[in-house]
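Human: Respectfully, please carefully check these C-alpha cells:
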Amino acid sequence: MSNSPTNHAKLNAWVKEIADLVEPANIYWADGSKAEYDQMIKILVDAGLATPLKKRPNSFLFRSDPSDVARAESRTFIASQNKDDAGPYNNWINPAELKEKMRAVYKGCMKGRTMYVIPFSMGPIGSPIAKIGVEISDSPYVVVNMQIMTRVGTKVLEVLGTDGEFIPCLHSVGKPLAEGQTDGGKWPCEPDVEKKYISHFPEERTIWSFGSGYGGNALLGKKCLALRIASIAARDEGWLAEHMLILKMTREADNKFKYIAAAFPSACGKTNLAMLIPTIPGWKVECIGDDIAWMKIRDGKLYAINPEAGFFGVGPGTSMHSNPNAMLSIKENTIFSNAALTEDGDIWWEGIGYDAPGKLIDWKGREWIQDKNNKDQEPSAHANARFTVPARQCPVIAPEWEDPNGVPIDAILFGGRRASVIPLIHQAKSWNHGVFIGSIAGSEITGAALDLKVGSVRRDPMAMVPFCGYHMGDYLKHWVEVGKNISEENQPKFFFVNWFRKKDGKFMWPGFGENSRVLKWVFEQCDGSGKAVDTPIGLMPEPSSIDRPSDVSEETLKELLAVDIEGWKAEIKDVRENHYAKLEPKLPKELAAELDAIEKRLG
C-alpha cells in the first residue's frame, strides 16, 4: 500500500483486501488533524450536504434521508457461530451466510468515492483500558464525526505499532457513483431498509455496516464497538463494557468526592444527570461521560473510563431548563443532524425552551411555521435529531475525564421510567442484589409501542438489551463473576432510582437539578454518613435524610419512599413469569436466589 502511513502488515493487508472488494476511486488515511477536519467539512459544504450555521461558530447542519434517521435495530445482527450465544434479544444470522450476502452488496460499492481509513482509539490513547479500532468508510460525514467522538489519526497508529491489536470496522453508505456523477446535494444511503446491515461477528471481533450513513449505524466506534463488541471482549477478558454515564460529585465543605456510574433505558434523563447542576448549595457535579463506561478491576477496585471523546446527544427536549450544560456545550464546533434551520442561521427543535423564531426550514428541507393551535402539525426537527460535540466543551467536564487509568467507581445507579410501585430510590444489600435490581430494570410502555400493552413494563437489564453482543443470561452471569473478584469493602454500592412516579397524572418528583438531592443520599451512603432503613426491597432513606424540594410535601416524600408491598409482589411475579423465563436455561442461579429471597421478604 504505497500511501499507507503504517508498517502494520495485518492492517495494510486488510485495507488492501477491502479496497479490492469495494473498488474506490482513491484511498485516504485519516491523520486526525484540524486541517483534515476543515477539509472534510469543505467537501461536505461544497457537495450541498452541510449548511454552515451563522449563529454558531464552526458549526454545521446536516439533513439525512428520511429513511436514515436512527439506529436500525431490526437490521442490526449478531452473527455468532452458535445461535444460542446471541440470546433472546439479538437478531442472529449465520456468519457465513451473512458474509456472503454482504460481500455481494459491498462489491464495487465505493466506485467513484474516496475510501477513508480511520484509525481510532476508544479511550485516551495508550490507556490500559482503551481499545483501538480502524474504520473504513466512504463518508466524509463519518470522518468528521469520528474525529469528535473518538481519538483519530497518527498517534493511534504509533500506539498500534507494527503488530498491535485492532478491531476492523467496515462501513459504506451503499451508493456507488458512476463517472462524473455526484450526490446532487442529497444524503447518500441505501433507502431500502431491508438492504441495510449493521453486523457484528463476535468471534472475529469485526463490524460490517452497509447502507446507512447515520449515527450508531455509521460511527462504528459508538454502540457497535464500544458496547456490542466490547461487551464480548469484556466477558472474555474479565472487565465490563456498559451503557452508563459517569459523574463526579463533590461535597464542597470538605472537598470529598465520589464517582457514580448510572445506566438508564432511553428517555430516562441520562445525559441530563451526567451534566446536572445541583439545586442544593455546597455540592458540585462534574461530568466524566454521558453514555458509555468501560470498567476494569485494578488494585482491588473497579476503575472506569469514558471511551468516547465527544457527546452524540438527542436535541429535542434539550433546553436551558432541562440541561443548560449541554446547551452551553453546543454553542460552537458542533455538528447538528436533522434539526430545523432558522432564517438567521441557527438551529431549533421542539422542547428547546422558546417558540420557533419565525419561518424555519424543517429537517426535510421544507418551509415550516409553528402553529400552536394545530396539534397534528409535524415537528420541525426529527425526534432523534442529534448534536455531535467535543466533550472538552462541556462547562462541567471533570478535570480527570481523560485520565488513562480511569476513576474509581463508588456507586452504580440503575433506573427506569415507572409511574408507580418503584420508589424514588432504594439501595441493594449486596453485589448480587445489585446485579438483580439492574437485571429487572425497565420502563413502562407508552402509546408509541403498538405491539405491547400500554402500562406493561419493557425490561431492559442494565439498559443493555439493544447493545449486549451476546446472551443476556451469560451477560448477567459475567456481572456476578466480576463481583467475586472485588472484596466487599471495595465493591461499589448499587442503587435503583425512579424520577418518574406519578399521582393523578402528574409527576410527584420535580427531577432535573433536584435529582441532586437523591445523589446526596447516595454520596452519604458511600461515605458511611447516610441514614437508611432496612426494607424488604433493600435499604431506603429515612424521609428526613433527603433534602426535600420546596414543592414536594412531606406527605408526598413519604409516599415516594414507601414500599408498595402488593405492587412489588406483582412486580416479582412479572419478573419471574415474563422476564427471567426468557433467560432460561442461562439465568444465573444467584439471581434466581435473589428473586426467591425478595419474594420471601415481601411475605
Remarks:
- Residues 531 and 541 are 6 Å apart (CA to CA).
- The chain has three domains: 9-50+69-238, 242-309+401-602, 311-392.
- The longest helix spans residues 565-583.
